[in-house]
Amino acid sequence: MATRIRKNVWTLPANDETLIWYERAVEALWDRDLEDPTSWFFMGAVHGQPQNFPDIPGSGQFWNQCQHQSWFFLPWHRGYITAFEAVVGKAVADLGGPQDWALPYWDYSQPLSENPNARRLPVAFREPTKSDGTRNFLFSRRRVVVNGDFGFPDDVVSLDALDHEDFTNDTPGFSSGFGGPQTGFHPGGGDNGALESTPHNDIHVWIGGSGGFMANPATAAFDPIFWLHHCNIDRLWEVWRNADPSHVSPPSPLWRTGQTFSMHDGDGAAFTFNSEEMLDSTSVLHGFQYDGVPPAVEPAIPAEEFVMAGKEPELAGASEAPVKLRGAMTTAGVKLDTSVALISGAEAPGTTRRVHLHLEGIKGRGMPGSYRVMLDLPDDALPPAIIGTLSPFGLEQASNPDGPHGGNGLAVTYEITKLAFALGLSQGDANRLQIRFQRMFDDSEAFGQVPGLEQIAPTEQQPDIEIGRINLYFD
């Protein structure tokens, strides 16, 4: 069978039936028993098992398997969405559709000058019923918005992650690289990789808000738009790999073959895979590639030559107490250690060390939505500088003291080197930083309802989020 081509959902021709067949196939998956590994419910629970969801014998090997805050984030999700594509593709073929059906992707980062609709939810996913009055199985519990416009700002769809040179980085307090930190089997908690942070987490939370399925890993895969979102994240991995010969996946055997994952194919047969088997997209199950992006070919790097990037950073300041995020705006201070110099005499004149703001121990409950993170500048005439977003996707799981990581919470890092001079860090003038957290959603959101999934809808509760510590690091 020919390699399947995944296409941009917004550039499909007007008479294209990709989404029509997708909707029909999802309905067919809904009709299957929970015990069927190709059912909608079984496939959704592979990513996360929601509240009030029944257990079935033998599901432990396959459910709650999602890899987050980990260098396995990208290869695991590639295996997952390709298995789902195989399941849907077979359902499409059985219904009389094309034999080579492929998932489309949603490129919400496409410049609006090229496609004014790029950031809008595709039309087929917006309404609970179709034009004939029957149920639309692509509709889900999401924030209710007008004309599919979730209002994604530029920083939510930013592709700055593609600028990261290293796939992984274990330097404490610094970015963990494009793909995430080195871990074992890891269902979440700790630092995000750059791509997982933005746009991945941001899009999840902007669609799901404080009560939708996409905002929580335990329910995200029950929203049909999840799969188009993750196709795009997977595509961006290929874009990054093609962008520069130095953009290579970890040659470490711990990443390549050290962890095996389990899934089911289109026929419901179990199979296993590792990260190395995910590198050639044309060889993953039926094989796929993205329109306009050639399959990446990486140069071979012996594992013994692989050195994790980064060095031990220098702590230049930290908050003095945990920070609770309350209301529309919360401010927090970081007291600086004036003995730590940003530019030292040992360096060449004018050489600036990199600067990172690191948030750790982010814990809480509920789904508070996204926050914009800003730094106040010493010049009162200037507005606060936006340094990124805080999208607490996976907050509850990472905060659970009985969870696999003891409730240590989430962490996120922002590089602020370009702001060093404006903040007074280069000159040594600053003795304190002030950070602002602006909540991007309010509490008046409405959410669509999905018949048959009422039992997994999030429990109504007042969101609560706390940042354990805010650190400033110099490299």
Q: What structural class should be given to the helix and strand makeup?
A: alpha+beta
Helix share, percent:
10-25%
Cα distance spanning the termini: 50 Å
Order of H and E elements: EHHHEHHHEEEEEEEEEHEEE
Cα gyration radius (Å): 22 Å
Summed up, the helix count is: 7
CATH topology of the largest domain: di-copper center containing domain from catechol oxidase
Find the count of extended strands (DSSP E, 2+ residues).
14
Low-confidence region ranges: 344-349
Walk me through the structure.
Residues 174-197 are annotated as: Disordered. The protein is an alpha+beta fold and 475 residues long. The protein has two domains: 4-54 and 62-305, Di-copper center containing domain from catechol oxidase (di-copper center containing domain from catechol oxidase, Orthogonal Bundle); 314-474, Jelly Rolls (Sandwich), CATH 2.60.120. It is 18% helix and 16% strand. Strands 2, 6, 7, 8, 9, 10, 11, 12, 13 and 14 form a ten-stranded mixed beta sheet that branches. It has a two-stranded parallel ribbon with strand order 1-5. A two-stranded antiparallel ribbon has the order 3-4. Helix 3 crosses helix 5 (225-243). The radius of gyration is 22 Å and the shape is globular. Residues 344-349 have low confidence and may be disordered.
